[in-house]
Amino acid sequence: MTGLLINLLVTAVAVLLTMLATMAYALRTRNQGFVDTVWGLGFVVVAAVSFVTSQILGEGLDARRIIVLALTAIWGIRLGAYIHGRNRGKGEDPRYTALMRRNTGPVVPYVIRTVYWPQGAIMWVVSLPVQVAMYETAPLGIVTWVGVALWVLGFLFEAVGDHQLSRFKADPANQGRVMDRGLWAWTRHPNYFGDAVAWWGLFLIACSHWAALLTVVSPLLMTHMLVNKSGKALLERRMARHRGPEYADYLARTSGFLPRPPRRGTSGG
């Protein structure tokens, strides 16, 4: 328990430094949207710091720690690379541009309060299963492998969904159209659904001890953010303002989050 408490403090410092470095770069480039690229990579930092700290504290090298480090790194690096590629050369995301326009005082306190403190705090809380798993000594069991399977399912949904959307947008013939093919015919947000499932998987991997059950706050918070805050809800409000009847029809026939076949009697898919 002492080792975990030390780890929680060390990772809090790591997240703080990561957010400060991101803020410094974003202010220099006048692009607060850079934090979106760092979001996934920040979890990799937490996982790597937790892994190294656990080794320094004598926890040893076992399969659970390696699995958690590897899965978090694969998830975070892919997400960071995808967002960087998607945003490269496009300037600041309109969300952050609108946010900066509302500022009427000093910039640094404003962006800390509205961007970097909230995202850093959420990152640290969501990463709790990753941190806790580094200090568990129980052998791998059925719950662990269910967690790995869930992570694989979530990662595939997220990665395939992002790939399908990128290919759709790259075709000039699809300009202004609504993506309603592949996984996007089964859920309006395969990337967000996959993200949530991956973190439920990491939570289960950490659940070899009853204390790890407390980290259920991690996947609950991630799912809440993806469905009700910065993910699905925000994107659909923006899409509804800028898209016409085609998007309304897509909303009517396609699940909002959990995948299911599109409703009958409508086109698409």
Brief characterization of the structure:
This protein is an all-alpha fold. It contains 11 helices and no strands. The protein starts with a helix and ends in a 16-residue tail after the last helix.
What can you tell me about this protein's structure?
The protein is an all-alpha fold and 269 residues long. Helices cover 70% and strands 0% of the residues. It is built from eleven helices and no strands. The protein has helices spanning 2-29, 34-56, 63-87, 94-101, 107-126, 128-133, 142-170, 190-205, 217-228, 232-242, 245-253. Helix 1 (2-29) packs antiparallel against helix 5 and helix 2 (34-56) crosses helix 5 (107-126). It is globular. The mean pLDDT is 92.
| Main sheet overview | none
Structural class: mainly alpha
Helix content: 55-70%
Q: How far apart are the first and last residues' alpha carbons, in Å?
A: 50 Å
**Averaging pLDDT over every residue, what do you get?**
92
Fraction of residues in β-strands: under 5%
Radius of gyration, taken over Cα atoms and rounded to an integer in Å: 20 Å
Order of helices and strands: HHHHHHHHHHH
* Number of H/I helices: 11
- What's the number of extended β-strand segments? 0
Spans of at least 5 consecutive residues whose pLDDT stays below 50 are none
Note the overall shape: globular
Could you list some keywords that capture this structure?
single chain; 269 residues; mainly alpha; globular
Layout: helices, strands, pairs:
Elements: H1 2-29, H2 34-56, H3 63-87, H4 94-101, H5 107-126, H6 128-133, H7 142-170, H8 190-205, H9 217-228, H10 232-242, H11 245-253
Helix pairs in contact: 1-2, 1-5, 2-3, 2-5, 3-7, 7-8, 8-9
